[in-house]
Design goal:
Blueprint (H helix, E strand, L loop, with lengths): L3 E5 L2 E9 L2 H10 L7 E8 L17 E8 L7 H15 L5 E3 L3 E4 L2 E11 L2 E8 L24 H17 L2 H11 L6 E4 L2 E8 L5 E5 L2 E5 L4 E3 L1
Parallel strand pairs: 2-3
Antiparallel strand pairs: 1-2, 3-4, 4-8, 5-6, 6-7, 7-8, 9-10, 9-13, 10-11, 11-12
Helix pairs in contact: 2-3, 2-4
Length: 230
């Protein structure tokens, strides 16, 4: 399978019309010894896109589907917040007003417009990002989605270029700066959410990237579990 190679914003981009999954392709590159820092796998469409918890990511033409490979010696929970802020700031630069649902889903008017999948592989981390531009999937009535075309006119390449620059900026930023900006953009802060089916209050994140929840007088630190907005 051959892709088109281009250089863009300090990244080596491998672009495809359609592949099963940019995330899987990135992992295969790493497994084959071809993984390198600042490589991006881009596809116009995916036949087997996936999100967190192995959920299907519906991937029609017209949206942004990209997986970034970064050198990474160890897992870092703080990365998810830097990525979330980078995506949000990218949308803000085009005049959109987003919020971030923990840890890095991007919402507009409480509807999901972007999702991220972060997976570690050897000495690398693969950051998969999908942003709805021209279309948004109908999943179920309670799971609302939207697309950028409802709010602003932007091309995929314009979005990608700005996103790459913001990812580099926020990944390099001190986490105290990332944490402050994430908190400013966070959806549901100081409101009740559900954690493992139980209502808790969403307080914020700590200096290590743990989510801080409060159940009555008890505080919980959460890293990998999913929360649901009430």
């Amino acid at each position: 399978m051959m892709g088109e190679y281009i250089e863009l914003a300090n990244y080596k981009v491998i672009s495809f019309d359609k592949i099963p999954s940019t995330q899987t392709f990135a992992h295969n590159m790493i497994a084959d010894g071809r993984g390198a820092d600042h490589v991006a796998i881009l596809a116009d469409a995916q036949s087997a896109g996936r999100g967190r918890y192995k959920r299907t990511w519906i991937s029609h033409h017209g949206n942004l589907y990209v997986s970034f490979i970064y050198a990474c010696e160890e897992r870092d929970a703080r990365l998810a917040y830097a990525v979330g802020v980078a995506i949000a700031e990218t949308l803000i630069s085009f005049g959109v007003v987003p919020t971030i649902k923990w840890p890095n889903d991007i919402l507009i008017d409480n509807k999901k417009v972007s999702g991220t999948l972060i997976e570690y592989s050897g000495r690398f981390v693969v950051v998969g990002i999908g942003i709805n531009i021209k279309s948004n999937p109908t999943v179920k009535a309670s799971y609302k989605t939207t697309k950028l075309d409802n709010y602003v006119s932007v091309t995929r390449d314009e979005l990608l270029n700005k996103l790459m620059r913001n990812l580099d900026k926020w990944r390099r930023s001190d986490f105290c700066v990332v944490r402050t900006r994430w908190t400013e953009l966070a959806a549901g802060l100081n409101h009740n959410v559900k954690y493992r089916g139980e209502p808790v209050e969403l307080i914020g994140i700590n200096e290590n990237g743990a989510l801080i929840l409060r159940r009555e007088s008890h505080y919980l630190l959460v890293y990998g579990d999913e929360i649901t907005m009430s």
